[in-house]
Amino acid sequence: MTLTPSGYRPRLIDSTVSDSLRSAGAVNIEGPKSCGKTWCARNAANSEFSLVDPKDNFLNLRIAREDPSVALEGDEPHLIDEWQDVPKIWDAVRYKVDTEGTKGRYILCGSSSTDKSVISHSGAARIIDVRMHTMSLYESNDSDGKVSLKGLFNGEFSTSKGRSCSLRDIAWLVVRGGWPGLLESDEKSVSIVLKDYINKVCEVDAQKVDGKKRNVQNLKRAFRSLARNESTLATKSKIAKDIAEFEDEKIDEETVADYMSIFDRLHLVNDQTAYSPRYRSHVRVGKNPKRHLADPSLAAAAMGLDSEALVNDPNTMGFLFESLCERDLRIYSEYIGAEFYHYRDHSDREIDAVVELKGSGWGAFEIKVGQSAEEDAAKSLNRIRSFMENDEDAEPPRFMCIITGTGGMVYRREDGIYVVPINMLGP
Length: 427
Description:
By secondary structure, the protein is α/β, with parallel strands linked by helices. Helices cover 39% and strands 15% of the residues.
């Protein structure tokens, strides 16, 4: 019997955790606070040792600091939650796995990355790292998943109808985000929780990661700047300039880099890597990542935007809707074993999202809130296809797809491009 909590909503990552436990002695689940790591781990565990259990004045934490091996005791798979508070637990787990050689023994959970200098062994081939995200619309039951990402690679597609979302519906999905604990909340509650979440990240979590004290207000300014630059290719120097312009505070690029590193260690940024096509074409491609916070709701909360404000601000709505879609595409891509990117070359040809599946080529995605922008998206995709078809060394996309917010119809255009509302997309 596992420790699966009552009311647990299955996650796509569940199968990844199971596969990892069959493959190695331990799995390490990482992700932002409140994304559902502990419940996911309990769903696969038979016992638990939590370092944040307050019982008897945090007895577990005090004992583990004295003797990390105590944290390893329990029926297997055995969960050790927030293990990074006692980094020596990593080495204790690695040693047990290494010396006894059995699979599926331990599940580690953590909300921040540990300083690797305090760990004696990487855990390679012994402890498999698994990155967890907030929930996709498919996992939160806001998408019926009629269109499968894997199916698109296999040529599986059929015209179908679904529920049509309004702009306000889409705005609410952005503002609410994919946090398991907020799925049943009203908008006021969501606003209160996420505002507090961001405050505590800057006031508490960012100060604890490496013990270095940082300017709380400047951390908040940097977080808001990342929110304003959501779904863009903003460099660190651009972030620094943005803070100076909108926050009236000068923060040097080195400090910005430090703050972004801390947010990364807290798993609060999830940048989208640039795609480098594996062909010998003369075209030069950009290398800058596309900026993303861990969930689009964090960007909305940091800027103080509710769903009504988003509906009345089409430009910001477009960037945050793109972020929501790319969050979901990333989750679906990881589930099917694909890689997730964006593309932009030096001739300003760009693709919002690229999904590459080994042995099956790659798919190109353009993202638009409304179906009224379909023709512009199709023009951009066809430009890419034409360019690659005319380059003998290039590999054209296996398929092209426009993801929309509004509209309740899945169909294939005459030019072969698929049109799929985000609330009908799944893995």
